[in-house]
Amino acid sequence: MTENSQTSLERYDRQMRFGPLGEEGQRRLAASSVLVCGCGALGSVLANTLARAGVGHLRIVDRDFLETNNLQRQVLYDESDVAAGLPKAVAAANKLRKINSDITIEEVVADVDHSNIRGLMDGVDMVLDGTDNFETRYLINDASLKWGIPWVYGGCMGAEGKTMTIIPGKTPCLRCLFAEAPAPGTTATCDSAGILAPIINVIASLQANEAIKILSGNEQAINPVLTVFELWENRILQIKLDSLGDRSTCPACSGREFPWLTGDRGSHSAVLCGRNAVQLSFPDRSSLRLDELAKKLQDVGDVSHNPFLLRLVVGEFRLTVFPDGRAIIGGTEDIAEARTLYARYIGN
């Protein structure tokens, strides 16, 4: 052990004093790599916790930018980040580098889909779910099973949250639990149910703790149940996953069918929860020059841009465009109207 490595471990002294982890577990954390998929409410708590715990490499991917209403529950950010017009992944990486300069932080501003998930998961030891939709979770589940990478599911709405740890070949997967994604309109949304910040911290803390167990070499200590917390009425439910039955009937675990990974399932448009906004993605589109686009639009409406995104405000609509051609159209939840606005101002 070198003097420098010993010094770097000192910041984790209290963590290493926890017997099941110890110095060996801490060294394993330092050598590990994690993909945090989504860096909003759950993801910001996850990234913050793992950075402070000493996970050596964090790859943070998020498609969105910051707004003031995020600050109620997204713990990595502050008002200056909102004012700077930063994407969440960039703002998160900036903050995390100030928290722990000994680890590597890699930010990716992108929408996770079947075309880029292989690259995003390349070299990581596990994936943590900070997403806000089942479509991406099924994609992560497919990728996890195909490439043998553990992941931890987490989701929150209102005062309730759920989490489950998935280790390919050893535990049931997401499709064992939910054979199909909920149909549109059948579940609550951020608009209808709202969200309380404490449930975010509870679920993300459980997710991060499961990650620390696995990454430190203590996989046997994971909690092999679906855990449900309802904080307002103080209810806790744990469902044993062996009650799901024989995994041989699961089309993903046993059948090795991965329709989200192949692109046979999933879309390139999404209504964003609680945002009155639609995201449009164009995987085959060439990159945009935001500075040139800003000049083109300067007489159309109120335009601002930085290296990460361009914003155009026209009447009641707010278009946020990213270099990869992806856009978030605020002011509507109608996908057809959003596509019309994109074509009108950005181009086909």
What distinguishing features does this structure have?
348 residues, alpha/beta, TATA-Binding Protein, 2 domains, 8-stranded mixed beta sheet, 14 helices, 14 strands, 21% strand
Q: Based on Cα principal axes, name the global outline.
A: globular
Strand content: 15-25%
SSE class? alpha/beta
Biggest β-sheet, characterized? Answer: 8 strands, mixed
Low-confidence stretches: none
Radius of gyration (Å): 21 Å
The CATH topology of the largest domain is given as: Rossmann fold
Q: Compute the separation of the termini in Å.
A: 58 Å
Q: At the fourth CATH level, what is the homologous superfamily of the largest domain? A: NAD(P)-binding Rossmann-like Domain
Strand order of the largest sheet: 3-2-1-4-5-6-7-8
Total number of strands: 14
CATH class call of the largest domain: Alpha Beta
Q: Which architecture of the largest domain would the CATH scheme give at its second level?
A: 3-Layer(aba) Sandwich
Provide an overview of this structure.
The protein contains 14 helices and 14 strands. The chain starts with a helix and ends with a helix. The chain has helices at 3-9, 13-16, 22-30, 41-53, 79-83, 88-99, 117-121, 134-147, 174-177, 190-193, 197-215, 259-262, 290-297, 335-345; strands spanning 33-37, 57-62, 104-109, 126-129, 151-157, 160-166, 225-230, 235-240, 269-272, 277-280, 302-305, 310-314, 317-321, 327-330. An 8-stranded mixed β-sheet has the order 3-2-1-4-5-6-7-8, sandwiched between helices. By secondary structure, it is α/β, with parallel strands linked by helices. The mean pLDDT is 89. It folds into 2 domains: 32-262, 3-Layer(aba) Sandwich (Rossmann fold); 269-345, TATA-Binding Protein. Helices cover 34% and strands 21% of the residues.
